[in-house]
Specification:
The protein is an alpha/beta fold and 403 residues long. It has helices spanning 40-74, 84-96, 149-158, 186-198, 226-235, 330-347, 360-373, 394-401; strands at 110-115, 130-135, 171-176, 203-206, 239-243, 266-271, 308-311, 315-318, 324-327. Helix 3 packs parallel to helix 6 (330-347), helix 6 runs parallel beside helix 8 (394-401) and helix 7 (360-373) crosses helix 8.
């Protein structure tokens, strides 16, 4: 028999200890009625509880619907933090390059990244000191990144959230020279480098053609190339760091990418998490050649290519949709070295270009320290066309500069 007790008498329907249940039914919450003799205060409390429950359920359903809609739109789950794998790799790569996390952060050093832009709304870039922005593609005055590569590179340098940049306190300049498809024109890249120099950059970072999905920028078509601009920057004492390229293995064209091939530019190759040569990293040609063009003269220390290698396989990066991911390429390796140079300049401010002399001689001095401080591959003697002089060792570089 079903109990038809009123709400205030429900407890009477519970059988004594040891008896079988008498098919007790408790009405749903929205059918609950106050006791017949309840006071106005009790009735008011029950109405308030019903309102709170209704509002809470409504908000929960609304948030769930919004999340599902966002997942559909973004074609995947929304990341609120990097994966454990990304965080583990981030820490492992910092150990690999011997990054002194508790010391310098690049304060007072101005770094200019020439790339596809930057998404400053990413949570890990909330503290970024963006000191300058120039859009050479669409002329927009507000920073943006319609490809994502630039945001990933900027994060390796200045992120200060779940991921931590190599030199998070630098003053950052960003020049957008690559379009939404990752391609660009060499003459535009040259303009961007010139803008970096005119804007007071101490280090120029060029992760151009150094990542899968980034199209090589087209050469020629103008009187001034990115190599010309890079050489002028080096002559002024500005440190130019560029990706060696990603055509290693069977597809290697015989030398590092342009403008990393310029003598004064620091060309950066790539390694795996184990510190071994990353197979996609471009080789350098250091013996000289007549063909194929361009003619190359033999390269001498400390300018053999690549000069140094750094992390390039599944490197944790920021994405321009506000999430995190992993990326391959010597682009990423380039920014590790850019950050290392920034930390060096913070500790040796006399090497910061200021127009008072030094110029290319200071750049050559730093390249010498790089050559002496890197960690060679097991069994390596001298320069290797794939591994450079060795793996970036940031602490050893800082120590070499103090010797």
């Amino acid at each position: 028999m079903k109990s038809h007790k009123r709400w205030g008498e429900v407890l009477e329907g519970i059988p004594p200890h040891g008896d079988e249940p008498s098919h007790l039914e408790i009405p749903p919450w929205n059918d609950l009625k106050p006791p017949i003799n309840s006071s106005p205060e009790e009735a008011s409390d029950i109405r308030a509880i019903k309102i709170i429950v209704s509002v809470t359920l409504g908000l929960t359903l609304l948030l769930a619907a919004g999340y599902l809609a966002a997942v559909v739109i973004s074609d995947g789950a929304i990341l609120l933090r990097p994966s454990e794998l990304a965080l583990e790799r981030h820490e492992a790569y910092e150990i690999l390059v011997n990054h002194p996390r508790d010391e310098n952060r690049g304060s007072g050093v101005v770094v200019c990244i020439v790339d596809s832009g930057i998404d400053t709304t990413h949570s890990d870039l909330a503290d970024t000191r963006l000191s300058g922005w120039k859009d050479f593609v669409q002329g927009r005055t507000t920073p943006y990144d319609d490809h994502g590569h630039g945001t990933s590179m900027a994060g390796i340098l200045v992120a200060n959230g779940w991921l931590k940049g190599i030199a998070s306190d630098v003053e950052l300049l960003v020049a957008k020279a690559l379009g939404a498809d990752g391609s660009g024109d060499d003459g535009v890249v040259a303009e961007a480098i010139d803008w970096c120099v005119a804007s007071g950059a101490h280090v120029v970072s060029l992760s151009l053609g150094g990542a899968p999905g980034i199209l090589p920028f087209s050469l020629g078509g103008g009187d001034r190339s990115s190599g010309d601009a890079a050489n002028d920057a080096v002559d002024a004492g500005i440190y130019v760091v560029a990706a060696a390229g990603n055509d290693g293995g069977e597809n290697d064209d015989g030398d590092v990418a342009h403008p990393a091939s310029e003598a004064g530019v620091i060309a950066v190759g790539g390694v795996t998490l184990q510190g071994t040569h990353w197979s996609g990293s471009s080789e350098g040609d250091n013996n000289g050649r007549i063909l194929p063009l361009p003619v190359l003269l033999p390269r001498n220390d400390p300018d053999r290519k690549p000069e140094v290698v750094a992390p390039a396989e599944a490197v944790p990066v920021l994405l321009n949709d506000g999430s995190w991911g992993l990326a391959d390429g010597t682009s990423a390796a380039t920014v590790y070295v850019t950050g290392a140079i920034a930390l060096l300049l913070e500790s040796k401010p006399e090497l910061i270009p200021n127009g008072n002399g030094g110029g290319a001689d200071n750049v050559e001095t730093v390249k010498q320290w790089l050559m002496e401080s890197v960690t060679p591959e097991e069994g390596q003697t001298g320069h290797d066309d794939q591994y450079g002089y060795g793996l970036l060792n940031i602490q050893a570089l800082l120590d070499a500069s103090q010797g």
